[in-house]
Amino acid sequence: MNSLALGLRLVVRGPRATQLRFLLMTLGCALGVACLAAALSIPAILAAHDGRAAGRDVQGGPSSGALFLERKDPFGSRPLTRIFISPPKTGTVPLPPGVERVPQPGEVVVSPALRDLLAERPGLKGALPGRVVDTIGPAGLTGPQELYAYVGRTRAQLPADEARPLGGYGNRWTAPDEAAIDDGTVAPLRFTLCCLVLLPLFVYLSVCVRLSAEARSRRLASLRLLGLSARDTMRVSAVETLCAAAVGAVLGVGLHLLVNAFVAQTGWVGLAWYPADGLPSAWTLAACLLGCPALAYLAGRRHAREAALRPLAVRRQAQPGKPRRWLAALLVLPGLGIVTAYCVLGVLGVHVEPSALTSFLVPAGALLTGAGLVLALPPVTAWLAARVAATTQRLPLTLAMRHHEAAPGAALRVVSGLVLLVYAASLTQGVLVELDQVSRRTAPNQEYAVPFRQVTAEQRAAMTGVEGVSGQAIVGDLKDDRGSVLVATCSQLERFVQPGSMRGCVDGRPLALHDAGTVPAEGVESGGTYAAELRDATGRVVGSKRFAAPKETVTVSVVQPSALMSTTLLVPPEAFPPGLHPAGAQLLLSGAPEPEAVQATLDRLAGIAPTAQIDPVGIVIESLRQLSIVKGLLGTGMILGLVIGVAAFLVSATDRAMDRRRRTATLTLLGIRTRTLRAAQCAQVLLPLAVGIGGALVAGRLAESSYLVTGGGAVFWDGEGLPLLLLSGLGVLAVAGLASLPMARRHLDPELLRRD
Length: 756
Prior knowledge:
The protein is α+β, with helices and mostly antiparallel strands. 53% of the residues lie in helices and 13% in strands. An 8-stranded mixed beta sheet has the order 14-11-15-10-9-17-8-18. It has a 7-stranded mixed beta sheet with strand order 1-7-2-3-6-4-5. A 3-stranded antiparallel beta sheet has the order 13-12-16, with no helix packed on it. Strand 12 (529-535) and strand 13 (541-548) form a beta hairpin. Helix 4 (183-208) runs antiparallel to helix 13 (409-439), helix 5 packs across helix 7 and helix 19 (674-710) runs antiparallel to helix 20. The longest helix has 40 residues, at 16-55.
């Protein structure tokens, strides 16, 4: 108890420098814990999102007597979901989560975000026929920015062949279709966030709890020499460290709660959530409130133990031992071996399919490489500093290299955060390149497919005249699985293909249709006939139509995905009797591919036929939404990593300058000019940082390429992002060099020169 009381007395009533150090340690731990809590809260936010999505999943069943129809359309990168409900005349209907009463025909219940959007875009009202009578509560929404609506309709207003009996809501057994992130994306996202946040965070917390490590070690050594036992000396050190870490952990959790309440509903990371979803779980609180003090104790234990066991060596500032090279090699060699092996397979053209093995080896290799890269800095830079000091004739460089050679471990604290940041940035770029291949759209036009059976002739005519629609055609099925038939003129066909790619088209007769990027279909030019089943406006079969296999072929180039993918025959519109169309017919529309034009066209088409399924060909709304979320989370991770890396550098550089005040004062007394001291200080920082950033760029590119090779995409090597990474590395070096200049001062403090 006496040692604990002594430790508290030193913290509370110690000199101003000790109190300032305690405050900085506390604030540093608070920032680190806040970042840790934010990173650990992401799974809870995603789980809450998926849980509410599963709880409102509409289930079919004959129990209630009501009918429902679900429609989901893209609105930018967000889905607009409409549930059309036709309640029975008698009986009760299951209530959706968050809804107080089922909307009757002519009534609409919308989410708060959709209600605000209706006020901004009145044109969207056509997709929600009826009067808005209520809003959906949080229990029925995945987030505050979700666009969701329940629309009341009569039975006659719902398509008879698509409406299903409403049984209830909630699905406990299968994953919801509206999961925030699918299972295949969770693994790369998790390992990328670990590289972006957790590795720099571990370094940052280690830096914070070891502030003024040299001065603290000398003070502990003095207590030991005054008669305090080794065990009590360790306890005195633990009191200060644990108090700062514990107070910082509490403040960090509070900071996380404040930021969570502010950011939650903004949708800043691509996903808006309710503040309650981001509250830290019991495991998160345990990791923050217990893990941070435990890490602080372990980080400070080595210096405290050395002061307790070797107090004279600490007071006389004996030269520290050489860094352990085997530990760095133990991590770097397996990590680089894994990522390099996959890069070699990519060079050889071997296509590695994504599997459970690759999803384990690639993240493991990336994490081992990143950790080994940091641990390899002291031995590598110490060896390099010795070689430079032996060959240079410049005094500033000699001072910097000899000091770095004597204490290479100090460089680890100063530059490791920035090195990990550059390494993680390269990894993040690879993940974004792989995800971007999913949503990249290069077609010159955007196609919209509307089933004939879901719209009337008047609605089809109105759709073809909508602003933003530049082309129209009809695509239907051919008998005997011989592909599909396109009913259009040459000018109409030209609206759906690459500009200038159409060759050999003649109006007025059937033509074989061939995409220049595919293999010609068998039997198209060898004679025979094609047959198409005819149907009337009600969908009833009224006969068939035969076409002789054409001798002429029209060649086009279509950007896939496209509704023309399986089309083998081009037929003029006059070939079909008025009012009849081929089986499986779809109205095909073409418009501009820009996202704003696509959204405006979808709004207008939905206003003409609210219950029709309008398919924007090639746009997977769930992929767009998930891509937006993943990019937002990775962007947040980059910001957290940047804050952590810069904070670790500033804290460690300032702390190191404070520890070197006596050495700087001694050199100044010996006549060394301030300009020389500043140059030495700058060189001492830039050497390990340049070596670390160079290694981070090389290792990061290898890890990124290994991820791309095993990701299943077409891109193996990302050369576009290399200039940006090089410029970022040079910028980090410039900022670090400028930040180190004010650390050398000419002020002489006699207290620093006094012999102990």
